[in-house]
Amino acid sequence: MVKTVKHEKTVYDVFVERGFIEKVTDEEKLPEILGGEITCYIGFDPTASSFHVGSLVPIMSLAHMQRHGHRPIALVGGGTGLVGDPSGKDEMRQILTYEEINKNAEIQREQFSRFLDFSGDEALLLNNADWLTKLNYIDFLRDIGVHFSVNRMLAAESVKIRLETGLSFIEFNYQLLQAYDFWHLFKHYDCLIQMGGSDQWGNIVAGIDLIRRLEGKQAYGITFPLIMTADGRKMGKTEKGAVWLDAQRTSPYEYYQFWINTDDRDVKRFLALFTFLPMEEVEEYGELKGADIRKAKEILAFEATKIVHGEEEATKARSASKALFSKQKGNDEATPTTLIPMEKLSEGIPAFKLFEVAGLCGSGSEARRLVEQGGAYINDRKLKKFDEVIKGKDFDPDGSVLLRAGKKKFHRIKILDKR
Q1: Residue 163 to residue 166: CA distance in whole angstroms
Q2: Predicted TM-score of the model (pTM)
Q3: What is the mean pLDDT of residues 375-386?
Q4: Domains of the chain, earliest start first
């Protein structure tokens, strides 16, 4: 269970020192407001069946809010998800059915509970479909639409970008709906602050303006920076795609490996953003250099995995990672594994194809390059020919082989039926 912890610092101080803040609507008033106890919210897109690492900054920010005595609202966009947010997209999002969105929302509810304590209204999990799907269109235009300037909406960065490729009318309405969400939460839940990614700035400001016009009162906004890795890549993207919080899509071991493979230059920043370690410890680990940085990466990987998958899974992933890093056999239970039927090995499988099947390479051509560049290993034997045929005789007595791409990426292939 997540517990509220009393701190000398306000959550605003924590956000600043940990690198959460990109922009705020009132630099003077917000620190004062966050010295008390308030309600805040962040909206989450329900169009995927799981959150991924790219969603962690907003989720962690809600967890910090709760730990400092505030009441966070995690708002599932069951209503806005039926429209689609054009922000940050160069084409229209896929429009899902009510059933698909509700199913995704239930999965997200379970993932939120790893970060937030929803008991006793300490945090709220709401779905904007509960009010948006009941709106009368004519009344909405008269009561809400009258307060929006089309000229101002067209000036929004997210809209300007999409105008070049085409923006549907349904997407153009999105800002009105999100602004209505903020007003609804302000009116019914006393929610004073909306937070979100940097691409949500225009939508947040629109909500603040609507509250001022309808209620004559002031609300506030905070946006987070887009997290990029030191080498210029978007945080959370790998050769295999997104790194998911769902253990069925990204195993605890793979999740741990994602973090332990962090670029040295990102370790301190990621410890601050993606763990709850005190900043004093983060500063200490951030000073480590050379071979010692491995210790800081292990701390980052363990703490990040523990938050999402629990301490037991994090411990198993750490043990497997250490075993593989030490070139030992490793922990079969934690190491990512792909099963291959025995009949597929009767004529053998080209080595490059095995690396593609295992997901260590995104395509056959990428696997060929890996072998040709000397970065592909089978049971610690460097492959010399990309089309070397791998047969049953190449497998260990237990029916498995260990593939390695470069120094750090491992995957086990096991024979499904050894008869």
Answers
A1: 5
A2: 0.75
A3: 81
A4: 11-224 (3.40.50.620), 237-325 (1.10.240.10), 337-415 (3.10.290.10)
